[in-house]
Amino acid sequence: MATRRNPTARQIRLGAELRRLREAAGLKARAAAALLGADSVQMSQIEAGVSGVSEERVRRLAANYACVDEALIDALVVMATDRTHGWWEEFRGVLPAPFLDLSELDHYATFRRDVAVIHVPGLLQTEAYARALFAYTTPELPESELEHWVEHRMRRRIVIEDTDPIPYDAVIHEAALRIRVGDRKESRAQLQRVLDASEADHVTVRVIPLDLEGFGGAGSSMVHLGGAVNRLDTVIRDAPHGTVFIDAEAQLAHFRTLFRMVEKASLDPTASRNFIHQLTKEL
């Protein structure tokens, strides 16, 4: 198969999982390549996501790696063979690649969990809120480019607003709800947007109050996307140097635990809705 210049996060993940299976089997890349009638360069390209791999090759590798997890193998086959060109492809070459990678991961996710401390989660933002947020991007975005960023963020909401939405859990710190990214009117509309979304059966919103004692999780902001199997989950975090995609099993276990801790510290959904409703009345 032809090599890719810019593989997506999903393509890179497929290669990483094949590499992890090989390493668990105690095989070198050269030996694995021989199983495919390929060379070590081609094997490295497959494991880097730079080169595609067929269903037959995925299953052959899995068999020789003594992988007996049929659900995982089937999920890897789907990752290797799915040729979906989603709505996010309209923005390729216009927006940074991590934006498109997140949209693609959203599309295939079985659930999504957000922890937000400073800003309202992207899936719950109003257009005005997103625009005001992106206006602080450095370097400053031209107006035409800013509109693309906002449009993309609004269209991402499809994963919780479509006819077949994924389960969505958001834990939001009171600080994120109180910070006025826009003016008073826009802030009220943003709170109402969160309230409206929380009424859906598949959406759960919880709030962590500012006066909660013993809360050390202020640095726990994350996006946790469920994979077809637990091993294929992804955690996404924003860092000073850019967006970080986390998929190592030990790290995933850490963030699953962290989410449970933050969720346990938050108000229950009913109390959270009442809390947000009170904030709205104060504006």
Could you explain the architecture of this structure?
It contains 13 helices and 6 strands. By secondary structure, the protein is an alpha/beta fold. Strands 3-2-1-4-5-6 form a 6-stranded mixed β-sheet, with helices on both faces. The longest helix is centred in the C-terminal third of the chain and has 17 residues, at 249-265.
Q: What keywords describe this structure?
A:
283 residues, six-stranded mixed sheet, 11% strand
Sequence-ordered SSE layout with sheet pairings:
Blueprint: H1 9-24, H2 29-35, H3 40-47, H4 55-64, H5 70-81, H6 97-108, E1 112-116, H7 127-134, H8 143-155, H9 158-161, E2 168-173, H10 174-178, H11 184-198, E3 203-208, E4 222-225, E5 234-239, E6 242-246, H12 249-265, H13 269-282
Parallel strand pairs: 1-2, 2-3
Antiparallel strand pairs: 1-4, 4-5, 5-6
In summary, what is this structure?
This protein is α/β, with parallel strands linked by helices and 283 residues long. The protein has 13 helices and 6 strands.
How would you state the average pLDDT, rounded? 95
User: Share of helix among residues?
Assistant: 40-55%
CA radius of gyration = 21 Å
Report the structural category.
Answer: alpha/beta
Instruction: State the total count of DSSP E strands.
Output: 6
